[in-house]
Amino acid sequence: MILRVACIQPNAKPDLAANLAEIEHWIRAAHADGAQFIATPENTSGMHANRAALIASALPEADHPAVSRFGDLARETGAWLLAGSLSILLGSGKLANRSFLFAPSGDIAARYDKIHMFDADPLDGQAYRESATFERGTEAVVADTTFGRLGLSICYDVRFPALYNALAQGGASMITAPAAFTVPTGKAHWHVLLRARAIETGAFIVAPGQTGEHAGGRLTYGHSLIVSPWGEVLADGGEAEGFVAADCAMDSVVKARQMIRSLDHARPFTPSIFATSLSNG
User: Fold this and answer.
1) Is 155 a catalytic residue?
2) What pLDDT is attached to residue 271?
3) So what's the pLDDT on residue 224?
4) Fold of the 2-265 domain
5) Of 7, 42, 130, 248, which residue is the catalytic one?
6) Res. 281 pLDDT band, cuts 50 70 90
7) Catalytic residue at 139?
8) In angstroms, what CA-CA distances link 225 with 9, 47, 160, 172, 238?
């Protein structure tokens, strides 16, 4: 099976309506290009100048216009759609950084709340403390689709290979990694991490990213990637807004895993702390 996959690469604003209009335009363009699975990046609902603005913009899932909009687009196009992440207001007062997978019927096929919180200081002039605003997820998610099992992750999750291994062990032949990667970390690590996750799991990695300068001066790296199970970059979105697409031969997952059987060869072990000493003589 050949699956045409597209990553949407926008420059999200604080204005939800403007963001959805831009995303809708690029989803239709990607569908016209033949894409059957179309993914948008982290923070699809908006990029905000500060924490207060982000919290003020968040809505409960039942009231979020992006949820119904993506459902309508999935029905219209007949494609599988991934809303990379929306900021969802929880009853606790915190937010969920939540990814939604929509089936061609328009129904929600899966939800995933980002597990790993980006609390970091990447030397771009900003300090990031996601855990102050977001409630982390606790469950890895694999969804059944017409093109195979799809594993879900978000951005900073890419630095935690155990999650990707669990998704692959759960049957995922493709894993999504929508992101809003910073420029310093993107230049240093983005391609390396995504190619490594693909090679380790023998799965396709689909990683749509935000790009450019956003409210508050935050800069995101772009370079939306589609990576093969052998670690080859099939598509790279560069820094421009728009979409990038690639044809994914789904049988290459089986071939990669037959050539390198690391998923079968994984063994349990007991973590220990080893002390070493040097002898004199």
Assistant:
1) yes
2) 81
3) 98
4) Nitrilase/N-carbamoyl-D-aminoacid amidohydrolase (3.60.110)
5) 42
6) very low
7) no
8) 10, 21, 18, 18, 9
